[in-house]
Design a protein that fits this description.
Blueprint lengths: L1 H14 L5 H21 L4 H20 L2 H24 L1 H7 L2 H7 L8 H6 L32 H16 L6 H18 L2 H16 L11 H15 L8 H13 L3 H4 L12 H9 L1 H13 L5 H20 L7 H15 L7 H10 L2 E2 L8 E2 L1
Antiparallel strand pairs: 1-2
Helix pairs in contact: 1-3, 2-3, 3-17, 4-5, 4-9, 8-9, 8-10, 8-16, 8-17, 10-16, 11-12, 11-16, 14-15, 16-17
Length: about 375
Amino acid sequence: MASEFLILVACLPLLIPRVLPGVMILAAFSGAFLCLQALLRGGLDLKAFRDLLIPLCFYWAGRNVGSPAQADKALRIIVGVVLFFAFFELLALDVYTRIFNIFSYYVSTGSLEEITEYQRDSRLQMNGIRPPGIGRTLLPGLLDSHRVSSVFLEPVSLGNFATIVAAWGLAKDKSQLRDTLIFVGAAVVLIVLADSRFALLSVSFLLFARFALVGWANYLPFLMPIGILAMLVAIGMFWNGVYGDDYIGRLASSGRSLVEFNVANLLGFGHNGGFPDQGYAYSFSKFGLVLVMVLWFVFWLIPAPDDQARRFRCYIGVYASLILCVSGSSLFALKTAGVVWFLFGIVMRDPARLPETSEKSLKRRLPVVAPAPGKKGVRA
């Protein structure tokens, strides 16, 4: 919590001089709606504020202080670090878990209870090992039941990060084929190491979108949540199978939670439960349907300067729509949400102008270059 707070505070000196009326209106509306929910619910949910602050802050940071070239360089470095620790964990698991006792960390923070012996012995997070009844999905003959988590401490987050890296690579123009292959190739390696079924499905959707959606068709994922919610409700109402840790089990769990919602739950005034694997239920209970719809519309109404920006928004829309089916709050986790919203801000490439006083102050500090013959002096 302290680390997240310091990271967000570090953004303020860069962002406060560049805040535009539209940003203030959206932030004020969101804050007012969450405060109204707190009055009706009988308590203020600070995590809801935090979940919305991360995308607002990192999107605005990327839009104002980032550039595509910087993003490519930074993302290559990050991917390199993630791959290094991923293979370190894969090839020297005992050494890795002696240094990073992941299970003990999650127990100490209250996220897990010491219940199952094999997970405690492995020192990995609960989902760091595929149970015998399920087994590994990707390369089971080559790799064992261990799911690599690298610097993220849990394989779910590594799979989400891999999806974001693939989306960034696929959004590039055909002239940047080399960069596309680098990012997508790295994402595939991470997906295999993490044995992430969600990332495998998501990247398959993104590959289809890259070849099938052209021009204004990249706005079609705007409608995805409608179809997905209808599917979840139908599964929740009519599927009578036993819950399992697979696609249909996760979908049925999400659908049943939505079927049980009343009007107060849907508007965010009622139950505020955890919903660990039910992202749509989590979002409606935290923010309410009204605020969720406003934020979704705003996301798609931001003017995109070029095809790369439209493609990346399309792919992030697909990613968000899918992850809310099978995961609770991971869409809002800083370790992946900060990356995706910063990249989204960068591709929009429309920085706000600094106030006039700040521009004059900046010009006074710039050196004067000696004029060429017949020309007036210019500033560097």
